[in-house]
Design a protein that fits this description.
This protein has six helices and 23 strands. The protein has about 375 residues and is α/β, with parallel strands linked by helices. It folds into three domains: about 140 residues, Leucine-rich repeat, LRR (right-handed beta-alpha superhelix), CATH 3.80.10; about 130 residues, Leucine-rich repeat, LRR (right-handed beta-alpha superhelix) (Alpha-Beta Horseshoe), CATH 3.80.10; about 45 residues, no CATH class.
Length: about 375
């Protein structure tokens, strides 16, 4: 007789492998089905070549699909045939002999495994144009010691720098590896973890297979519990994510000790396999009404959700003083927003004006702005 776990595993096996890295990395020609980073195969134009590179030419952009593995020095062009290079495709440079790479400021996406197993690669520099980096893109770059980030948030996918000396050094400096608002690694964390309010994005697999983490509190500015973020975190007991709007696939797979999960009415969706293979009986603390919980797009027959005791809490979410845009942090963005609003630009959205009512007179005016500025720069 097949158990529930066996059935779930059979249904989601391929996805779990792709997200958690349970198979050998593909070489050129193999593509993971990550449509956020690559086009569907039937939409692709013919593959072109200029000697060093092979690439797909679209009407408005170029995707590099392959690089000559023997080259040791290569300059990724900002354009080919007059069309901007915006995507470095999956596995494009995998196994290359390059020693360093500077990505041109035309590139916005780097695909899964793009530079995986570049054993001689020592440094990489990201321009501010890059928005997304795919699964294990720089994994097994065994000489990678230098990574230069722009002053912008980059959404890293699962285990981008795994098995590199660079990530090992970052973990020694701080178990929470954070760059420009993105938490990209938490493998060295232990015990109870409070993620700083400056973090806006927590990468997939951040705490995957970490059996030393017992609880995690997300700041309200983090709007997604990404795919497999707690995959096989077998001693995880509590997670608070009041700002989460979505819970991704395999997020809590095999988290059988999960006792408490705190969410809010901001939540819009729960993936059908978010709690795959999770035998815990948990309490879900939901800041919102039963109607708001019922409105969440979630599987109707999920065993974990069916067992859970959902407690509805009729209290406002924690408010950060000065946080008028309700992103979980008081910073210069809030100050500028209030200033624009006060000079009659009413199109600027203020989600929570009361957070900046420092005078406590139930209105927002220049006196509040003065105090706001002092508090921000004191």
């Amino acid at each position: 007789m097949r158990t529930r776990k066996t059935v779930l595993r059979a249904a989601a096996f391929a996805t779990a492998l792709a997200l958690a890295g349970g198979f050998a990395m593909p070489m050129h020609g193999s593509r993971l089905a990550d449509t956020s980073l690559i086009a569907f195969a039937e939409d692709r134009p013919a593959e072109n070549s200029n000697g060093t590179f092979r690439y797909y030419k679209y009407s408005d952009h170029i995707e590099i699909s392959f690089c000559d593995k023997s080259v040791t020095s290569v300059e990724i062009p900002a354009s080919i045939e007059g069309v901007p290079v915006t995507v470095i495709g999956p596995s494009a440079f995998q196994g290359c002999s390059i020693t360093s790479v500077t990505i041109p400021d035309s590139v916005t996406e780097i695909g899964n495994y793009a530079f995986n197993m570049c054993f001689d690669l020592t440094s990489v520099t990201f321009p501010s144009s890059v928005k997304k980096v795919g699964i294990r893109a720089f994994e097994f770059c065994s000489k990678l010691t230098e990574v230069n980030f722009p002053d912008t948030l980059i959404e890293m996918n699962s285990l981008v720098f795994d098995s590199t000396p660079w990530i090992e050094e970052q973990r020694k400096k701080n178990p929470l590896v954070i760059f420009n608002g993105a938490l990209i690694d938490g493998q060295a964390c232990e015990g109870d973890i409070a993620i700083p309010s400056s973090v806006k994005y927590v990468a997939p697999s951040t705490f995957a297979r970490n059996d030393k983490v017992t609880s995690v509190v997300f700041p309200t500015g983090v709007t997604a519990i990404c795919n497999d973020v707690f995959f096989y975190a077998t001693n995880l007991e509590s997670v608070e994510a009041k700002g989460a709007q979505s819970i991704g696939i395999m997020s809590f797979d095999n988290c059988d000790k999960l006792k408490t999960l705190t969410l809010s009415s901001k939540l819009k969706s729960i993936d059908g396999y978010s709690f795959a293979d999770n035998d815990a009986t948990s309490t879900i603390k939901f800041y919102g009404s039963k109607d708001a919980w019922d409105a969440v797009n979630k599987p109707s027959n999920d065993p974990f959700l069916s067992r859970a005791n959902v407690v509805f809490i009729d209290e406002p979410l924690d408010e950060v003083e000065g946080d008028v845009n309700a992103d979980g942090e008081f910073n210069i963005t809030d100050l500028v927003l209030v200033q624009k609003w006060l000079i009659s630009n009413k199109s600027d959205e203020i989600k929570n004006w009361k957070a900046a009512d420092f005078i406590n007179d139930d209105k927002l005016d220049v006196y509040d702005l003065i105090i706001m500025r002092r508090k921000l720069f004191q």
